[in-house]
């Protein structure tokens, strides 16, 4: 796995994530990589820590141990991290869109909103 950590097509890296809530370990030593143009799906039982892990990955939960990297840069150093990461649970898709189209529309809308903010 160490050799994969430097591969150019890896855009997001989660390394040794550990999280406790009220002395109960919720996430223990999680490590995974996201390659360019890929999608990760986290499935598991209720209470397994999926949503907590995604809140950590999107910068919405800062109370954890471990490291997050985007394009090999520590995300603690990237102020815009929340603007390019997408997180949703229990998505309800409009009937005319599949999952890919829904995520694509989300990013197009997000880009449009940022462009409008720059105009103002």
TrEMBL record:
InterPro entries: ABC_transporter-like_ATP-bd, ABC_Transporter_VariousFunc, P-loop_NTPase. Gene3D superfamilies: P-loop containing nucleotide triphosphate hydrolases (3.40.50.300). Residues 28-81 form the ABC transporter domain. Its EC number is 3.6.3.-. It comes from the Bacteria. Keywords: ATP-binding, Hydrolase, Nucleotide-binding, Plasmid, Transport. It holds the Pfam family ABC_tran. One of its GO terms (molecular function) is ATP binding. PANTHER family: ABC TRANSPORTER ATP-BINDING PROTEIN ALBC-RELATED. This is ABC transporter ATP binding protein.
């Amino acid at each position: 796995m160490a050799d994969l950590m430097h591969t150019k097509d890896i855009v997001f890296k989660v390394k040794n994530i550990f999280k406790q809530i009220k002395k109960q370990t919720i996430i223990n030593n999680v490590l995974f990589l996201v390659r360019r143009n890929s999608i990760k799906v986290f499935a598991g039982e209720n209470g397994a820590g999926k949503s907590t892990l995604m809140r950590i990955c999107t910068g919405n939960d800062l109370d954890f141990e471990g490291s997050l990297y985007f394009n090999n840069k520590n995300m603690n150093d990237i102020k815009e991290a929340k603007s390019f990461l997408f997180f949703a649970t229990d998505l309800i898709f409009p009937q005319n869109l599949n999952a890919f189209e829904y995520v694509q529309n989300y990013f197009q809308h997000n880009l449009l909103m940022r462009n409008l903010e720059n105009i103002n």
